[in-house]
Design brief:
The structure is a single chain. The protein has about 210 residues and is an alpha/beta fold. It has a single domain, classed as 3-Layer(aba) Sandwich (Rossmann fold), CATH 3.40.50.1470. It has 7 helices and 7 strands; from the N terminus they run βαβββαββαβαααα. The protein has a 7-stranded mixed sheet, sandwiched between helices. Helix 2 packs parallel to helix 3. The protein is globular, with a radius of gyration of 16 Å. The relative contact order is 0.18.
Length: about 210
C-alpha cells in the first residue's frame, strides 16, 4: 500500500541515463530538476522501486518529491506511474519537465494538458497515465531544420548554448518553485515576461555570436 501524502508534489525531469547523455539537449529535463534539487538542498539518490534517482525537499512547508527516471527516455512513464501510485498523488500535483525542439533555445512554456508533440518521453508518460491532462514545463532547445531531429536532441550543447544554460536552469527552477507555491495559473503570469519576443531575440542573438 502506498504512503498517503496530503499536500505533496512530484516534479519529474526527463532525460537519458549515463555519462554519454549528460550534456545533451534531450537531457534538459534532468538538468533543470537537478538545479532545483541543488537549490533546495535535496540529494538525488538511486531508488530501485521508482526506477530512477529520487529526492525530497520542502517549499514553504509543502513536500516536494523529485524523480529522474533511469530508464531511457521512451520508457519514462513506468517510473512516473510507480511514484504517483506509491504516494497517492493526483495528476494535479504532478509536473513533467522536458526539452522541446519547437521552442527557441531557453524559452519556457508551461501547459496543463496537450499532446506529446512527438516527444517519446511524454508519449510514454501519457500511455502510463492514460491521459494527456497532466502539467508539463517545456524548455526550448531549438532545432536545426537541416539536421535529423533524433540526432540533434541527443547531441551535446554547443559552446554558445553552454554559456546560456546556467541562466536557463535557474529560470526554470524558479518557475517550478512558483508552481509549488502558488499554482499553475500564477506561474503562467510569472513566465509571461520570459516569453516576450525581446527575450527570444536576445537569446538567439547570443547563440549566433
Amino acid at each position: 500500500m502506498g504512503e498517503l501524502s496530503a499536500e505533496a508534489y512530484l516534479i519529474v525531469g526527463l532525460g537519458n541515463p549515463g555519462k554519454k547523455y549528460e550534456m545533451t539537449r534531450h537531457n534538459m529535463g534532468f538538468l533543470v530538476v537537478e538545479k532545483l534539487a541543488e537549490r533546495l538542498g535535496a540529494t538525488l539518490s538511486p531508488n530501485k522501486a521508482f526506477m530512477g534517482r529520487f529526492g525530497k525537499a520542502s517549499i514553504e512547508g509543502k513536500k516536494v518529491y523529485f524523480l529522474l527516471p533511469s530508464t531511457f527516455m521512451n520508457l519514462s512513464g513506468q517510473a512516473v506511474r510507480r511514484c504517483i501510485d506509491y504516494y497517492n498523488l493526483t495528476k494535479e500535483r504532478l509536473l513533467i519537465v522536458s526539452d522541446d525542439v519547437a521552442l527557441p533555445f531557453g524559452k519556457l512554456r508551461i501547459r496543463e494538458k496537450g499532446s506529446a508533440g512527438g516527444h517519446n518521453g511524454l508519449k510514454d508518460v501519457e500511455r502510463h497515465l492514460g491521459t494527456q491532462e497532466y502539467q508539463r514545463l517545456r524548455v526550448g532547445v531549438g532545432s536545426n531544420g537541416d539536421e535529423d531531429l533524433d540526432e540533434y536532441v541527443v547531441g551535446n550543447f554547443n559552446s554558445h548554448e553552454k554559456k546560456l544554460l546556467p541562466e536557463i536552469q535557474i529560470d526554470a527552477a524558479l518557475a517550478l518553485e512558483e508552481w509549488v507555491k502558488v499554482g499553475f495559473e500564477e506561474v503562467l503570469k510569472y513566465l509571461a515576461p520570459k516569453s516576450l519576443p525581446k527575450k527570444e531575440t536576445e537569446i538567439e542573438k547570443q547563440i549566433k555570436e
